[in-house]
Each structure stands twice: as C-alpha cells, then as structure tokens.
Amino acid sequence: MDETAAPHAAHIFGPDTPTLRWANGSQVSDLYVDGMTTEQFLEATGLQLDMHKGCFVLSKRISRLMRLHFVSGFFAPDDMRVAYVAQSPAEAN
C-alpha cells in the first residue's frame, strides 16, 4: 500500500471520494454511493465504526459485511419478522 492508484472511471458513479474505504489484506476497497457522505451512509445503515480494537479488526469486519451474500426464498409477508436485540455494551462485546 505504498502508492494510491486512481479508481477506474467505470467504477466511479459521480463522487470524487469514496463513501467508505477499507483495507482487506493488501487490497484497498472503495464503496461509492452516489449522493452520500460517509456519515450519511453510516446513519442510513446503522453501522457504527469503532477503533478500540484497532484498524485491522475494523477493516476485517467491514470487509466481511461487504462480501457478496446470497439469500433467497419465497415467504408470505406474515411469516417474516425482523427483530433487533437490545444489548448492553458488555453484552455486545
């Protein structure tokens, strides 16, 4: 990571700077969301970046979130329920 390469023009949808950038091994990944700053993206997704375990752990976790995920199924809307678990900071760790 000694040098920064300019992103390919086909990979940029308008913004000059990426909405989110993280490292994964020797690769740097950029996420471009048109019209969104990093703060707006984090607020919209509910992500909270925390450096208390260091940038390596944070980048590793972001790269896991940004991997391709495939989920499929046909369900009746009444069969689906989304719930958020309330945790204390100690439980979250």
Q: Could you describe the 3D structure shown?
A:
With 93 residues, the protein is α+β, with helices and mostly antiparallel strands. It has one domain (9-92). 25% of the residues lie in helices and 11% in strands. It contains three helices and two strands; from the N terminus they run ββααα. It has a two-stranded antiparallel sheet. The longest helix has 11 residues, at 55-65. It starts with 19 loop residues before the first strand and ends with a helix. The model has no long low-confidence stretch (mean pLDDT 84).
Write a concise synopsis of the structure shown:
Helices cover 25% and strands 11% of the residues. The protein is an alpha+beta fold.
Structure class: alpha+beta
Number of structural units classed as domains: 1
How are strands sequenced across the largest beta sheet? 1-2
Q: Give the amount of beta strand, in percent.
A: 5-15%
